[in-house]
Design a protein that fits this description.
13 helices, mainly alpha, single chain, globular
Length: about 350
């Protein structure tokens, strides 16, 4: 097999693994109470930091570039909205929307050379642009899909369960409700969709610092001259930025709560598992970026998880119901599948 064929095979296999894990990594969190998500964010990022350390040791500690941490800071900032998104519009719809805007932002920045990075060329530009354009169309379709998330999750009947809450705990639980639980059904949909769009845009720029370092490593007058061209060599710096930023946010949260933060012990193991799955998926994503280029891998990897999450949301979590929603979901996924195929063939 030629070197180019090996790169393509590695890239598509890595993309497939990333798609499956990114579409499933939040599933463990659906059956436990996560409150406002700040404690969960820190637990999840602690798991990501552990994976980063292990990968760094496996790669024999490549040079650490602090600028690569900026991408992790951006990701952690966008990830704060994950729990409110899941609580308001559900796992499947949430991943669909933020995945679409993630795809658009990541693709455009790589394809056109935004933020000081080099524009990436593909074999078939028209197919590549068509695939990205279809992601935009699907994103707007998802905004009209209504999820079956209850408007007030503070009641005994709607609180996610790992253990049954006693009836006499209802009043105490209501006092501990997060701001998300106070929203009406319509407010939930508007807030969830808005947060998903913002989160998607932030996530779409998370790899820009790594790409910037790689592009400027080819210039002798740059401080990054000679930096590695292998994306996975930056995973420790990227993940360190995630852990550091999440820690700062959690400490700020503790200060805001007057050292009385809302902690949810039942979310620790699910959150840790979710973080490990996400970290492995992101490592695969970085490998795909190296093998396929971000202009190809972004639409592939950000489009696929939505379908995986939707299957979880429909068949196991029962978030999306009703014939109209099913038809919209099928239509949107058909558009995403077409766009994904266009993107994949643009590289071949």
């Amino acid at each position: 097999m030629s070197s180019n064929g090996t790169h393509l095979t590695t890239g598509f296999i890595s993309s497939s693994v990333a798609i499956i894990l990114l579409g499933s990594n939040l599933v463990p969190l659906k059956k436990c109470d996560t409150g406002d998500g700040m404690f969960l964010q820190w637990v999840l990022c602690a798991a990501i930091g552990l994976v980063a350390l292990m990968v760094n040791l496996i790669l024999h500690c490549p040079k650490f570039w602090p600028f690569a941490m900026l991408g992790g800071c951006i990701w952690a900032t966008g990830n704060i909205a994950v729990v409110p998104i899941i609580k308001t519009i559900g796992l499947g719809l949430g991943i669909f929307i933020w995945g679409s805007f993630n795809s658009l932002t990541g693709w455009a920045s790589s394809r056109f050379g935004w933020f000081g990075i080099d524009a990436q060329e593909v074999s078939k530009p028209l197919l590549n642009s068509t695939g990205a354009g279809l992601s935009i169309v699907s994103a707007f379709i998802f905004l009209f899909i209504k999820s079956g998330i209850p408007s007030n999750t503070c009641t005994t009947d709607t609180t996610p369960l790992i253990t049954e809450h006693a009836i006499n705990q209802t009043q105490e639980n209501c006092r501990d409700c997060s701001w998300v639980d106070q929203l009406s059904t319509e407010q939930c949909h508007i807030m969830g969709c808005s947060l998903a769009v913002i989160s998607g845009i932030l996530h779409g720029t998370t790899f820009v610092p790594i790409t910037y370092i790689k592009d400027h490593s080819k210039r002798n007058d740059s401080i990054y001259a000679g930096a590695s061209q292998y994306d996975l060599d930056y995973v420790f710096a990227h993940f360190s930025g995630i852990f550091l930023t999440s820690t700062v946010y959690f400490l700020a949260y503790c200060i805001a709560m007057k050292n009385n933060p809302k902690l949810y012990p039942e979310a620790i193991l699910p959150g840790f598992l979710s973080g490990i799955l996400w970290a492995i998926a992101t490592c695969c994503w970085l490998i795909a970026n190296h093998s396929l280029s971000a202009a190809v891998s972004y639409p592939l990897i950000t489009g696929g998880p939505g379908f995986i999450a939707a299957m979880w949301g429909i068949f196991m979590l029962k978030e999306i119901q009703g014939l109209q929603n099913y038809l919209l979901m099928i239509f949107a996924f058909s558009i995403i599948l077409t766009g994904t195929l266009c993107t994949a063939f643009s590289k071949i």
